[in-house]
């Protein structure tokens, strides 16, 4: 019996020793940690495409300065993976609303990527007072027919805001002569870009010395266009079902005041939150509408939130 007990104890001791050695081998030492890090995660220099363009206007990457600047934006947006994946998801939801409006006005389809860099395709709010996906300032909105006040702010109405952006871009193209300069002017203003062109005696965006934000602006648009057009090339992997989609809606016409949007929403089988999600331009829980203006409120179709 004692011999058996000693044998079992020896087996147990050997087993513990083996586990200890195994644990040491798998412990997060500097050596094996570094090996796992190298094997599991790699960062690569990117090959810059030779045919980059914005709205059909070539990006002169043969210029070393231009090459470095577009390389920066491609790297930043490729390796900011979480943000990049969100852009793919949101683009699937919002590009189908933006694209036909651009086409209707004869504005190149590439300008949908301007909305991406302006707001990340969210209803963003800037410190300067710009609002919505197209980041429209209050005066610009009012000058182009949008209602902008504390009760109703149509800068948050994607379709109407896209119409205003098209008007602005068409005027900028007419004044400045190229779509690339028109894009820069969306950031710095027509007058600002025109003044810089005169001061520096050039006529091309890529020849201008600009401040940090406007100097990066077009390069960011081109980089997002390239990445969003070629997801697998830049390491983004997703399925169609991973992307966001628009919830179908129907419109309800309103030409009177609405005293309580919570009760209004309940009439259509939804709550106040869902009403605001689909109508972010309604800024308060009521609608004044003393002028009896005609509004169209989007109501989600039944079955999508249940």
TrEMBL record:
**Alphabetized InterPro entries for the sequence:** Lysozyme-like_dom_sf, Transglycosylase_SLT_dom_1
Domain named Transglycosylase SLT: residues: 106-204
Which family does the similarity line name? Belongs to the transglycosylase Slt family.
Q: Which residues form the signal peptide?
A: 1-23
Supply the source organism for this entry.
Tamlana crocina
The protein's name is Lytic transglycosylase domain-containing protein
- The answer to whether keyword Ribosomal protein applies is no
What UniProt keywords are attached to this protein's entry? Signal
Signal listed as a keyword: yes
């Amino acid at each position: 019996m004692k011999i058996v007990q000693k044998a079992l104890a020896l087996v147990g001791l050997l087993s513990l020793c083996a586990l200890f050695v195994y644990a040491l081998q798998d412990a997060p030492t500097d050596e094996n940690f570094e090996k796992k890090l190298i094997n599991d995660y790699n960062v690569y220099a990117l090959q810059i495409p030779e045919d980059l363009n914005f709205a059909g206007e070539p990006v002169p990457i043969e210029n070393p300065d231009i090459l470095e600047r577009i390389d920066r934006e491609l790297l930043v947006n490729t390796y900011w993976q979480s943000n990049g994946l969100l852009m793919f998801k949101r683009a699937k939801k919002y590009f189908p609303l933006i694209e036909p409006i651009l086409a209707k006005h004869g504005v190149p389809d590439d300008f949908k990527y301007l909305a991406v860099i302006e707001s990340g395709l969210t209803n963003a709010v800037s410190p300067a007072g710009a609002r919505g996906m197209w980041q429209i300032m209050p005066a610009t909105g009012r000058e182009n027919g949008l209602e902008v006040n504390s009760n109703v702010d149509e800068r948050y109405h994607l379709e109407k805001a896209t119409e205003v952006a098209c008007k602005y871009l068409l005027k900028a193209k007419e004044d400045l002569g190229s779509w690339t300069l028109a894009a820069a002017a969306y950031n710095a203003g027509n007058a600002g870009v025109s003044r810089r062109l005169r001061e520096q005696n050039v006529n091309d965006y890529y020849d201008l010395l600009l401040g940090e934000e406007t100097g990066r602006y077009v390069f960011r648009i081109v980089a997002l266009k390239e990445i969003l057009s070629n997801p697998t090339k830049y390491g983004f992997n997703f399925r169609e079902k991973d992307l966001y989609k628009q919830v179908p809606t129907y419109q309800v016409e309103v030409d009177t005041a609405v005293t309580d949007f919570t009760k209004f929403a309940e009439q259509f089988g939804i709550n106040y939150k869902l009403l605001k999600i689909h109508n972010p331009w309604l800024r308060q829980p009521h609608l004044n509408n003393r002028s009896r203006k005609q509004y169209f409120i989007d109501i989600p179709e039944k079955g999508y939130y249940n």
